[in-house]
Amino acid sequence: MGEEVAPKFIGTAQCGSGTGNSLATVLPATMTSLEMVDLINSQREPGEAVLRHDDFLRKVPKVLGEGVSEKFRTPYIHPQNGQTYAIYRFPKREACLMAMSYSFELQAKVFDRMTELEERERERERRPVHGQRRLSVNGLSVNGSSV
Question: Where exactly are the structural domains of the chain?
């Protein structure tokens, strides 16, 4: 699909953002609605209709429920035109529910992808931040030498 450009998300915490906080911020693995649409379209047969992101967005409240779906809405800045759009950022459960609404095969692919992302996050948590020691205190991962 051409050159990939890293998306910009607004209002999400960044790991290692250099803010001076002593506790590392670890976000759960998520999958965006944009990523889900790309995955769904990659699984379609030649000649099968391409799923549009706006059609996917309309389906989310029907599958997850109006109140629940709003919790996962987040702004997105398009890297090419700088405009802000609404997308969804799903944790594993909701990503699997959305995928299941299309097919069980897609659900398996989403589950596997989310599991891979979770493993990457666990691996990242285990690695010390450059130039700092990483301690574990009562199950909390802490940078530096004091709590």
Answer: 30-128
